[in-house]
Amino acid sequence: MNIIEDKNTFFDMVERERARADRMGHQFSIIVFQLRDLKRHALGREAILCRIRSRIRLYDDIGCLDNSRISVLMPYAGYEQAKGIAEKIRSAAMPDGMPLEYSVLTYPSSWVDSSDERRGSCTDSWAAASRLLREKLDVPVETLPFWKRLMDIAGACFGIALLSPLLLLLACFIRAVSPGPVLFKQERIGFMGKPFSCYKFRTMHLGAPTDAHNNHLSSLIETDAPLQKLDAADPRIIPCGRMIRLTGLDELPQLFNVLLGDMSLIGPRPCISYEAGKLKLWQRRRFDVMPGITGLWQVNGKNKTTFTEMIRYDISYAYKRNFFMDTAILLKTLPAVMAQVADGRKQREGVSNGKYA
Known about the structure:
alpha+beta; Alpha-Beta Plaits; 5-stranded mixed β-sheet; 3-stranded antiparallel β-sheet; 11 helices; elongated
């Protein structure tokens, strides 16, 4: 067994175990022991470590987070098994008069804190589980890099100022051809699995049903076919709405989402709650980064890719994101939109190659 003295290194080991669990379908548990009043008791930290080592398995890992907390990572162990071991360790420590407290977290069946009153609820988001674990291990929660937030604010302000005449023109056009609000507000899933209100120009008639879209989305996910939209013959779309969607102009109001901090210029496409509920555990890693207006998937084939390929692009970006990658994606966005428009023209001529957003 390994004894890890750095909590960040231990957290990285837990993240790798979670990735392995998502792929292989097994569960694992973490016991977090809270040691109190070490100086007042004969039973010291090393003695507790000795008792922990004598009761766990050879392939379990121990993380010494600080002087008062020790964690044990137990692959393939369920909640009841981990709790039983924790109780044995605590009962062995109690005779010395030392108050030894613990909590158990089990993933993925019920990633809950055993000391929490909400025990029994299930966290279905990788990011939410990661946030809970960081709180227990006192590891800082990841935030948006300073350079990225600065780029977002500068880019969004510049874009709104430059495109304000176009934004006004589109708003007037939509109001003229279709009664109802100019903007369409929809709940999307963002950074760390947090929902937010995403803004777009409305390109469908007011009160258009969503059943057809949800059914189409389910089909794309289940069959892993190339991502295509229903735009070609969708009666829900307003006049010229298909061209607005094809050129991505309907997404320009998301520049305000960027200013609000709900989105970034670059990142995975923000998905709807219905879609998020169908994601596999490993696919939820796309929530580890802020969603974006454009991204790695959008400039690498987009509607020519399958749902799984899109997710892999999103996760790849989450791992590799940096200033130079974001800059390259921004520069590739306009050519990608132009290529998308060309594909749309081919579609009208009978080539099945649509847009998915």
